[in-house]
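Quick one before lunch.
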Amino acid sequence: MVNSAVSEFEGYATRALDAPSMVPRREPVVFGCEADGPFDADQLQTYEQQGFLVIDELVDSDFIDALRDALSRIVNDPALSDDERLVREPGSDAVRSVFEIHRLDPIFANLATDPRVLGRVRQILGSEVYLHQTRANLKPGFRGKEFFWHSDFETWHAEDGMPTMRALSISISLTANEVHNGSLMIIPGSHRTFVGCCGETPSDHYRDSLRAQQVGIPGEMELSRLVADGGIELITGQAGSAVMFDCNAMHGSSGNITPYSRSNLFYVFNSVENAVTEPFAAEVPRPTFIAARQVEALR
Ligand code: 6CS
Ligand code: FE
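Model of the fe (iii) ion complex:
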């Protein structure tokens, strides 16, 4: 079952545990310093302590319109309607996520190497970086379903073989993220604890987990403890705002029953010094449209 190819390196224990576990993070959170990039020392300290940082206006509204148009072309392209990269909502045909957006339109590829993005990412990860995953989460009005609490790193470690916590996500808002339309919630400080999860990874887990995750989610006791310590931060902002968050930050979001869709782009950057190995708790790695297996440093 569990691949133990990484004998000399102890991973974080997760999946098929007898009981959930909470262990301290082993890696730093910020790998670079003020001199390396656009963030000042205060911003780096906030990221280090909270596990995330909000950027009020990363890109302007004209560019957001162009990104939104590109996404809508993809979602409405008949040639892509059966494409695996388009993930549907549980219980409807509405598109929930589009994976590998950087291969579906050059505008999304270019955004990954935009200095406003790449400079900040390199500063925090303290090295050259590559794309582990890209996606859009559409959270359509009335029918966008929730994402239950999870640590992305738990999944990337267990199912993709990401060895250490040296990766982050940047989420860019294509629509307003409000208090009521299913915006991202993060537990401040949760990135300092790895929560091991109980269930065994099913074969082809991604087919279910990307619609409604049931394995690789923490227990209620562990979540309650994290929230008791850190509280919950709701990340709101206008289109064009962004949030960068650590790969192990505990986060999730509620469903969207408002008429206002909440669409965000997500880029996951991993350090080139943290290339994926064999999965730590799954039989085979997930398909490359979900988790890249080649390290191609972004320039
Ligand atoms: O499985 C994954 O890789 C993705 N799933 C969720 C629910 N969040 C982050 C991650 O990109
Ligand atoms: Fe996530």
